[in-house]
Design a protein that fits this description.
Strand order of the largest sheet: 2-1-3-10-4
Distance between the termini: 43 Å
Strand content: 25-35%
CATH class of the largest domain: Alpha Beta
CATH topology of the largest domain: D-Maltodextrin-Binding Protein, domain 2
Structural class: alpha/beta
Oligomer: single chain
Shape: globular
Largest sheet: 5 strands, mixed
CATH superfamily of the largest domain: Periplasmic binding protein-like II
Helix content: 25-40%
Number of helices: 10
């Protein structure tokens, strides 16, 4: 390991805050943050699905690792695909914060929103599951970092918007909100967790990251991400998943929706927490067997 570790991070306030969280966990290590503009940040005038969906917020950071311009990269785990480049691996998953989604504004729930209200989100998952409960809503694309999105809401461009609670808390943003129940919508796989990626052959960095890895979060998110992968989904698919470990048992809830919310299929399963990957696969297979012919 070099005397100084170069950390690749997106340039958004939230991404830089997440890099700061990492740095605070390794105070004895000299670090430098390399700010990288992702493709998802570069293209703001179209939806993420039109751009291509997969890896939009991580690919440029991964390229910095592969080219050895950086030693580690900090990601929101929910943005990462199951399959990674062979040269790279997730060296640590930090202790997860809240995985909740928030309805920003004065409304107590999505059911309190006026008929045909304009709701802002760039997430296919959020749009699909919200429409399954409120098909009348005018759900409109909302791009930009958290501060940009909140500014658009405060300017009256939307009646309400949906954001992840973890981001609001990390940036200490004071806005009115209500939590969206998991009965309405499960979170994205890995939501609220920070993943630290490095080169697969960098033994010294891997050793360092192992010391800050949170096993509970690792296994919970493994199950969630396995569920998505076994549905042939991606980080931008209309799929929700949430795992919780109690004792030695991992409980996994999962749901999949059609993009317009007209169909939603959900199920639950559990098992020994170290079998997280298999638990995710089992749940995906159960849903597919019960709903043959359904495709995302």
């Amino acid at each position: 390991m070099n005397n100084e570790i170069i950390i690749a991070s997106r340039a958004s306030p939230l991404a830089l805050k997440q890099s700061e969280i990492l740095i605070n966990l390794i105070p004895s290590i000299k670090t430098k943050v390399l700010e990288v503009v992702s493709k998802g940040d570069q293209i703001q005038n179209v939806s993420l699905q039109e751009v291509g969906g997969k890896g939009l917020f991580i690919k440029n950071l991964e390229n910095k690792l592969i080219s050895e311009e950086a030693d580690i990269a900090v990601h929101s785990l929910k943005d990462m695909e199951w399959k990674q480049p062979k040269e790279l691996k997730i060296g640590a998953v930090l202790k997860r914060e809240t995985r909740k989604d928030l309805l920003i504004g004065k409304w107590k729930s999505i059911f309190d929103l006026p008929v045909n209200a304009k709701l802002g989100t760039s997430s296919v998952r959020r749009k699909a599951f919200i429409l399954s409960h409120r098909p009348d809503l005018n759900i409109t694309s909302l791009r930009g970092n958290i501060n940009t999105r909140i500014k658009k809401f405060k300017n009256g461009e939307y009646d309400s918007i949906i954001l992840a609670k973890a981001g609001i808390q990390r940036l200490n943003i004071d806005v009115p909100y209500s939590e969206i129940s998991s009965e309405v919508m499960l979170p994205s796989a890995g939501q609220g967790a920070i993943a630290i990626q490095c080169r697969s052959n960098d033994k010294s960095v891997l050793k360092l990251l192992k010391s800050i890895n949170n096993k509970l979060t690792e296994y919970e998110t493994l199950a969630e991400r396995s569920f998505v992968a076994n549905l042939n989904g991606t980080c931008s698919s209309p799929i929700g998943a949430s795992a919780n470990i109690k004792g030695d048992t991992l409980f996994l809830s999962g749901a999949i929706a059609s993009p317009n919310g007209s169909a939603v299929f959900s199920d639950k399963t559990s098992g020994y927490y170290k079998n997280a990957i298999n638990i995710g696969e089992t749940l995906a297979n159960n849903i597919l067997k019960k709903n043959k012919g359904f495709k995302i």
